[in-house]
Amino acid sequence: MSEHEIVPAFVRSRAPEIRWPPQPWVVLYRVPRRANTENFPPGKDITLLLAKPPLSSIATVPWRIAPDDISPTNYPYIVAADASGFLLLYATQGRSKEPADTTLCDARMDLVPAYFLCHAHRSSASLLPKPPSGMVFFHFHNVGLIANPRADGHFLVAELQHLMGTHHASLLCYSTSTDSWFAREFAYHPNHPKRPYDGVISHKRKLWWVDLAYGLFTCDPFTEQPELLYISLPLGCVQPSARSQDIAKRRCVNLSHGKLRYVQIDDCPGKEKVTMWTLHNAVHWRLEYEASFTEIWADASYKASRLQCKVPALAFVHPSNPKVVYFFQDYLIFCANISSRMVMDGEFISMTCPPIGGYSSSSVLAWELPASLQPNDKPFLGGPSYTEGVDHRSAKRTIDALERRLSAHASGLWH
Question: Residues 210-265: pLDDT tens digits?
Fold first, then answer.
């Protein structure tokens, strides 16, 4: 196969001069790379390679922070990225010697969970202290990070935990301002399945737990008696019995232009389409648009891109332009303006350890950068550095390496 047959047109025609958007943001891959501890200068615990979208940005952490072998069911994971420049990182720390607590669902009892609050600009990572006896974070997809509105520079880390056999839930929290743990219990939606969520979003002083098959749960964790509210997905979208591992390829919820957006792909043969709704007043969903993939595939920009005419996986909505949605197709990430049906940009995915099931909306974060990390800063040792794109030969090498890696993954091998 020749290079022209392999490399999509939007990569071959990329101009060498690439400008960052007015509000810089990055496509942050949630699974960081790991490197020898000796490669990190004293006091440096995390490095970032930041790239202009749609190139992926990569974090690297030392083995001392993420010591366990990576497998399809266990890997370090960036749980949240705050606009102030803090990241919440999850990484297991070996086998647990304590007996399992079976009162909570889906607990990873055989591994010791650890969470690190990372200051991206300073390249530091602080381990959250061990909670008191009887308290523990049980699943990283249930854990959220939110800035404390009453204490500048401080955060609350919180997990919504289902109490098995009851109609109650517990909100387990750690506050950096008081360096203390606490828990609050409240009534829980009786019909919601007791299972892990698909992520947590911080928005308007509240945490929002996302269940892509069911809806959103939200509360203000800073009140003494928080009330847990439930917002169902749009009419006809609730499908709790149809939940599968691939649901994050067909659905996503994220912030765009300051509002929560829900995007869904319907892949019924001959009727493939993508639809977006916006949450208004934290109460109801309003339909924004829908477009058939037949229309998108028929556009001249799609034909010129040389992308395949097959339904892609969802990645996320552009953080400031809700008309633009990002998708994965094999080892490519690309974006399209759904209103105009036009493909706008695309690139090869430069991520290590691709997930066995393929890329999805749980693989990446659209992270708006704080001023301290914006690309007019000069790169510094142990801190962020920036890349503006790849040339044709580099793209070809990327494809070859990714194809070898994906082939190895298909055989069940992890590196």
Answer: 999 999 999 999 998 888 899 999 999 998 765 666 899 999 999 999 999 999 99
For position 242, what pLDDT does the model report? 58
Hey, where are the domains in the chain? 3-12+20-410
State pLDDT tens for residues 156-202. 999 998 876 677 888 999 999 999 999 998 887 766 766 778 999 99
Task: Provide the percentage of residues in the chain whose pLDDT is more than 90.
Answer: 53
Helix (H, G, I), strand (E, B) or coil at 34: strand
Cα dihedral value 193, 199, 203, 207, nearest 10? 50
In 3D, which of 151, 325, 349 has the Cα closest to residue 252? 325
Place of tokens 């720390």: 93
Check: CB of residue 95 under 8 Å from CB of residue 111: yes
Q: What is the pLDDT of residue 392?
A: 35
The stretch 370-389 carries a mean pLDDT of 54
Token duo for residue 53? 């979208």
User: Which of 118, 184, 5, 111 is CA-nearest to residue 383?
Assistant: 118
For residue 409 the two structure tokens come to 């993954």
Structure tokens at 298: 């028929």
d(CA 200, CA 208): 5
From residue 44, give the alpha-carbon distance in Å to each of 50, 226, 387.
17, 37, 21
Are 105 and 196 in contact by the 8 Å Cβ rule? The answer is yes
Order of strands across the sheet that contains 200-203: 200-203, 206-211, 215-219, 229-232
Tokens of 398: 């990327």
Give first-to-last CA distance, the chain, whole Å: 27
Q: How far apart are CA 177 and CA 119, in angstroms?
A: 16
> 3-12+20-410: which CATH topology?
Methylamine Dehydrogenase; Chain H (2.130.10)
The secondary structure of 233-252 as a DSSP string is PSTT---GGG--TTHHHHEE
For residues 112 and 95, the answer to whether their CB atoms sit within 8 Å is yes
Q: What whole-number distance in Å separates Cα of residue 226 and Cα of residue 242?
A: 31
pLDDT over 60 (residue 388)? no
Two tokens at 153?
């520079």
